[in-house]
Amino acid sequence: MEERWILVTGGAGYIGSHTVLQLLEGDFRVVVVDNLDNSSEVSLKRVQELAGEKGDNLIFHKLIIEDICRDLQVGDPEWKIMLLRYFNPVGAHPSGRIGEDPRGIPNNLMPFVQQVAVGRRQALTVFGTDYSTVDGTGVRDYIHVVDLADGHIAALKKLFNAKNIGCEVYNLGTGKGTSVLQMVQAFEKASGKKIPLIMAGRRPGDAEIVYASTEKAEKELSWKAKYGINEMCRDQWNWASKNPYGYGSDS
To answer: What is the rounded distance in angstroms from the CA atom of residue 234 to the CA atom of residue 197?
Structure first.
């Protein structure tokens, strides 16, 4: 089999390290570039352990991506560039079911809930309680980190197998909406902890409901999210409870 090398920038972070593990298990060879400003090399050591013999196919460089781009020739046929965006927006201007041309502002609720559960924050602020939704709070599309990683790999496979693919945009999401309070309740169930809430007014520009249209990814990438919010919260809490201050810290 032809060797398939993948350059992963920011690969030592939470999402990046999960993606690197999935790549290794998919028989890719991976070069990770990360300056470790907001991540830890410990995550990659754990990835290598989990990958077993395939962990030998991981190379890590502590670098800034600009250092590498400076040495690359524009238009070099040996390099292919892929950008993927996934839906997990908290503050987004469009409302409803979003197609492949989103103009939102991606943000992630989960880290804030997690930080309250492990004691790093006193409470979670919920912005907007009077929306026309199931419980008055905003509805968003949340995706499991493994589903996100698998979506990246599905796009990579298409990039390797297709000729002259050009630039394509794919939404990675569940295609279903979950309210802020529903997500909080799911995390409380997974963690066994009560999440203190501060109920606040709407923020300017926040949309009532935002969730991804995923038909294009399902059809063209043969990819579909497999996990729901219960699995997301379970797995996030499993990691957060063991690493309350991040990788490599016992304090």
So the answer is: 20
Sheet strands (E) in the chain: 5-9, 29-33, 58-61, 85-86, 89-91, 96-98, 105-106, 124-127, 139-140, 171-172, 178-179, 197-200, 210-212
Beta 139-140 vs 178-179: how paired, if at all?
antiparallel
Q: For position 112, what pLDDT does the model report?
A: 75
- Helix (H) or strand (E) holding 236, with range, is helix 229-242
Tens of pLDDT, residue by residue over 22-81, are: 999 999 999 998 998 888 899 999 999 999 999 999 999 998 766 666 655 544 444 444
Burial class (CB in 10 A: 0-12, 13-18, 19+), 5: exposed
What pLDDT score does 100 carry?
Answer: 63
How far apart are alpha carbons 175 and 123 in whole angstroms? Answer: 29
List, in order of start, the domains of the chain with CATH numbers. Answer: 1-79 (3.40.50.720), 83-143+154-251 (3.90.25.10)
Angstrom distance (rounded) from CA 146 to CA 149: 5
